[in-house]
Design a protein that fits this description.
By secondary structure, this protein is an all-alpha fold. Helix content is about 75%, strand content about 0%. The chain is globular.
Length: about 250
């Protein structure tokens, strides 16, 4: 329980009573709980999507509200990583210079563009899909993002000693990655049956592509890139459901 509370305290703004989950060892061992936090956030978002549909809130406003809700619950932690990562990775500089740029807290034009593109992708995807798919999409989005963090921790080495995510990088992460992917596949199956596995497959493909890109650019990951892949993978379920709605819609109650 302390590991889950540590993950909840680290990944969200949800209040955790007292000092529960605040020990460094609990946080270091909390990575397998990241997908559970994503599932919890997804459940909250799905409930909000259902309520907004019952209130007949226009699709665009509902989609915007859902994206803002998910951002607010995470304290925009991962969005900041996306911005910093884009500024560094798209700077066309050397590896060391990229890491320096990513450490700078100022937002550059590439960071601003990346944030706008990802947010627009989420809102437009949720808006364009059939209303009945909106709540399962919001359920899967935070889960896919947190699964991506666990998978990247398993695949790549950490390249910024002393950085924020250093505490997560001293343990073997393959069992956590397998568990995280299994949970994503199970959630997709529960919502859509066998077509739901396609969403998990698309998400895994994007994770592997992003891991390969980061390996080539930086030789590994940083805390900022973990936030970036979380934001990127959150878009995958929404975009997949937006472009492939007819097959999946019949599985939604």
């Amino acid at each position: 329980m302390n590991r889950f509370l540590a993950a909840l305290r680290f990944l969200t703004i949800c209040p955790v009573p007292g000092s529960w989950g605040s020990a460094e060892e609990d946080l270091a061992r909390s990575v397998p709980c990241f997908p559970l936090v994503g599932l919890l956030l997804g459940g909250l978002g799905a409930a909000a999507a259902w309520l907004l549909s019952r209130l007949n809130v226009p699709a665009m406003l509902a989609s915007l509200a859902l994206v803002v809700l998910l951002l607010g619950c995470s304290g925009c932690l991962h969005l900041d990583g996306l911005s910093d990562s884009a500024d560094g990775l798209f700077s066309s500089r050397s590896r060391d210079r990229m890491l320096e740029i990513m450490k700078d807290s100022h937002v550059g034009p590439m960071g601003l563009m990346a944030v706008l593109v990802v947010l627009l992708a989420k809102v437009s995807a949720l808006y364009s899909m059939p209303a009945g798919l909106r709540w399962p999409a919001v359920l899967l989005m935070p889960l896919a993002g947190r699964v991506a963090i666990v998978v990247h921790l398993a695949l790549l080495r950490y390249v910024r000693p002393g950085g924020l995510a250093t505490i997560f990088c001293h343990r073997r992460r393959w069992p956590a990655a397998v568990w995280a992917l299994a949970l994503l596949a199970a959630a997709g199956w529960a919502l859509f049956g066998s077509p739901g596995l396609v969403i998990g497959g698309v998400a895994l493909a994007v994770m592997l592509l992003s891991a390969g890109y980061l390996k080539g650019k930086l030789g590994g990951i940083t805390g900022d890139t973990l936030g970036a892949v979380c934001e990127l993978l959150e878009t995958v379920p929404a975009v997949t459901l937006a472009v492939w709605p007819l097959t999946l819609a019949r599985w939604v109650p």
